[in-house]
Every structure is written in C-alpha cells, then in structure tokens.
TrEMBL record:
Pathway stated in the Swiss-Prot or TrEMBL entry: Lipid metabolism; fatty acid biosynthesis
Pfam family, one: adh_short_C2
Protein encoded by which gene: fabG
Function: Catalyzes the NADPH-dependent reduction of beta-ketoacyl-ACP substrates to beta-hydroxyacyl-ACP products, the first reductive step in the elongation cycle of fatty acid biosynthesis.
Annotated InterPro entries: 3oxo_ACP_reduc, KR_dom, NAD(P)-bd_dom_sf, Sc_DH/Rdtase_CS, SDR_fam
Catalysed reactions, as listed in the record: a (3R)-hydroxyacyl-[ACP] + NADP(+) = a 3-oxoacyl-[ACP] + NADPH + H(+)
Class of enzymatic activity (EC top level): oxidoreductase
Taxon lineage: Bacteria, Bacillati, Bacillota, Clostridia, Eubacteriales
Organism annotation: Irregularibacter muris
SMART domains named in the record: PKS_KR
Name the record gives this protein: 3-oxoacyl-[acyl-carrier-protein] reductase
Length: 246
C-alpha cells in the first residue's frame, strides 16, 4: 500500500475524478477526507469506502469560503492528527465564447477553480510546513495549457493553477512540501458522459488512443504523485490525455 497511514483530503471528492481518487487513495491505505458540497455524494462515497475496508471522513465544504476551508483543515487535524496530502480537485465550468460570456460566468469559475485552489493550498501548506512534510496536488487541464474554444474563464483558471503550483514548489520545497499539477484531457466523468454521442465520438477521435480517459486513469496518477515513489518530483505538470494534444 503506497499511501499507508497517510491522511489525504480530496476536494470535490463526491463525484467523478474526485470520487475515483478518494477510493484509490483508500485502497492504497490512506485515511481519506471527502470534501464536497453535496452531502448525499459525500455520504455515498464515504460508505462505499468503509464497506471496502477503508477509512473515511466526510466534510461539507465550499472551497470559495476561506473560513470553511480552514475549518476543513482543522477538523482533519483534530480527527487524524495531520494532513499529508491535499488534492485540489473541486472545479466548475460555465462556458461561453468571449463575446458572449457574462461577468458572473467569469467570476464564479475564477472563484471556485482558482481562488478555491489558493484557499485550500494555503490552509494545507500552513499545517504541512509545521509538520515538515506534505504533498499538494492540484487539478489543471490540457485546456489550461493549450486553450479551448468557449472556455476563456476555465482556461485562465487552469493556467493559473500551473503558475501557483510552480510557485508553491519553489517556496515550500525547502520545508519538505511538494507541489504538482495534473492536466487531464477528455475524461468520462458523469458531466462529460451526458454530452451527445456525436460529441463524445469526436473527443475519442482526437486522441491517438481513440478513447476517453476514465476517472481512474487520473486517480492512478494522483496516487503515484502523492506517494513516496514521487519524492523527487515537484513543480511539474503531468498530462493524462491519451495523447490528444500531440
């Protein structure tokens, strides 16, 4: 078990990539904190982990609210005594072409995908620096590297996550804390699977591997980067995209 006795927080842990990551970490021996805004999803994932022999704590958290984020960290430390890993997975989309995008569409995506990552990274880092160890993993996207039609707001946040990750790696490395980002491509999350079949086929055709990624594909990478096997990896961005950007 690569994450035995580790304590890991996964934001947006109630569905999709976050859910898969929470379950993977639990399989690898971690004590998992599932942080999400949907209590039903939290309870379901927590129960499934416990039924599989894992250990999990569920917390309702809005990552935009710094007070709630700080409470998440303090409750984790109170319950488990430490925070070894945080996966900043929570995110939203509100797509529109530049000339059609409304101010509230831009602002809410920036708030969740960028400020939310900042809030969680900062709060976790304070504990990790004191411990002298820790791993901060954040969800970027191939969209953040290459841009995408209709996603000015989303692309901006995911590029911003990369900038924060590299900065944190430089600041926190000497304190024993690593920071890396993961950039998924087209992943078969519940949101994506609701798209028309024609759109899904187009996504598959763009990738040399000719398929969508699975949430587990991303979770497997998070598990590696969170483990001691990746102890000399920091400040990097790893794509999980089936070669779609080649």
């Amino acid at each position: 078990m690569r994450l035995k006795k580790k304590v890991a927080i996964i934001t947006g842990g109630g569905r999709g990539i976050g859910e898969a990551t929470a379950k993977k970490f639990a399989e690898e021996g971690a004590k998992v904190v599932i942080a999400d805004m949907n209590q039903e999803d939290i309870d379901r994932v927590m129960e499934e982990i416990k039924q599989s022999g894992g250990e999990a704590l569920g917390l309702s958290v809005n990552v935009v609210d710094i007070a709630q984020v700080e409470e998440m960290i303090s409750r984790t430390v109170e319950h488990y005594g430490k925070v070894d890993i945080i996966v900043n997975n929570a995110g939203i989309t509100a797509d529109a072409r530049l000339v059609k995008m409304q101010e509230d569409q831009f602002d809410k995506v920036i708030a969740v995908n960028l400020k939310g990552v900042y809030n969680c990274g900062q709060a976790a880092a304070k504990v990790m620096v004191e411990q002298g160890s820790g791993v901060i993993l954040s969800a970027s996207s191939v969209v953040g590297i290459y841009g995408n039609f209709g996603q000015t707001n989303y692309a901006a946040t995911k590029w911003g996550v990369i900038g924060m990750t590299k900065t944190w790696a430089k600041e926190l490395g000497r304190k024993g804390v690593r920071a890396n980002a993961v950039a998924p491509g087209f992943i078969a999350t519940p949101m994506v699977e609701k798209m028309p079949e024609k759109v899904l086929d187009s996504m598959k055709a763009k990738a040399p591997l000719q398929r969508l990624g699975t949430p587990e594909d991303v979770a497997n990478l998070y598990a590696f980067l969170a483990s001691d096997e990746a102890s000399f990896i920091t400040g990097t961005v790893v794509s999980v995209d089936g070669g779609v950007v080649l």
